[in-house]
Amino acid sequence: MKYMALSLMLLFSLNAQAVSWKVFGACENKPVHEGVYEADLQKSVGAISLEIFDINKIPYVGSEEGLNSILNSPIGLDSIEVVSDTEMRVYGWCYLVNGKQPLEMPHQIQFKNQSDKLIWFYAYSTNKNNQWEDYCSPAYWIQAEQFCGKEP
Asked: From CA 19, how far away is CA 37, in angstroms rounded?
């Protein structure tokens, strides 16, 4: 019986790993929230993200498939910045796993390493003359007045 309990504990510990995480908002190149979370690696990045947000009381709108809002960020038309008659920026949330931006949605990705890192950041994509120029550029790069107040 002792061996069975020890085996089960060992098996569970192989699936639980410390994931360090950070959340960056629209206005500063420093995390608004950060920490380390003992995650079950059988779960997706999306599911683990929701657990982290719930435990840390970080407000969000969305699901493990994707997040529309974190930290009460604007959604819908309020998340669009009109720069000129021919240019706009559309804002939303992007994520990195170990410094790389996956092409898949967060519910399709799982952590694999002992010391995985997760970053969620508010970002924009620019459309100029009906052409998309970039994708998931950190919002704090430009610190848009509509999210950050008066430009620095």
From this structure: 5
Query: What is the C-alpha to C-alpha distance for residues 149 and 67, in angstroms, rounded to an integer?
Result: 24
| CA–CA gap between residue 35 and residue 92 (Å, rounded) | 22
pLDDT per residue rounded down to tens, the chain (152 residues): 544 443 434 344 455 688 999 999 999 999 999 999 999 989 999 999 999 999 999 999 999 999 999 999 999 999 999 999 999 999 999 999 999 999 999 999 999 876 899 999 999 999 999 999 999 999 999 999 999 986 44
The rounded distance, in Å, linking the Cα atoms of 125 and 127 is 7
For residues 140 and 26, is the Cβ–Cβ distance under 8 A? yes
The number of beta carbons lying within 10 Å of the beta carbon of residue 50 is 20
Q: Where are the alpha helices (DSSP H) in 16-139?
A: 45-55
Q: How many CB atoms lie within 10 A of CB 43?
A: 17
Instruction: Name the pTM for this structure.
Output: 0.86
- In a 13 Å sphere around the CA of 134, the CA atoms on its Cβ side amount to 15
- What are residue 144's phi and psi, to 5 degrees? -55, 135
The two structure tokens encoding residue 105 = 């949605």
